[in-house]
Amino acid sequence: MREWWIQVGLLTVPLIAVYLHIPPPHISPTLNSWKTAGAFFTFKGNHIFYRDSLGAVGSSDVVILLHGFPTSSYDWYKIWDRLDQRFSRVIALDFLGFGFSDKPRPHQYSIFEQANIVEALMAHLGLRNQKTNILSHDYGDTVALELLYRSEHNKTGHLMISSLCLSNGGIFPETHYPRFLQKLLKDSGVLSPILTRLINFVFFSKGIGAVFGPYTQPTDGEFWDMWTGIRINDGHLVMDSILQYINQRLKHRDRWVGALTTTTVPLHLIYGPLDSVNPHPQFITLYQKLVQRSTVSVLDDHISHYPQLEDPTGFMNAYLSFINSF
Question: Residue 301 contacts by C-beta under 8 Å, 6 or more apart in sequence?
Answer without folding.
Answer: 273, 274
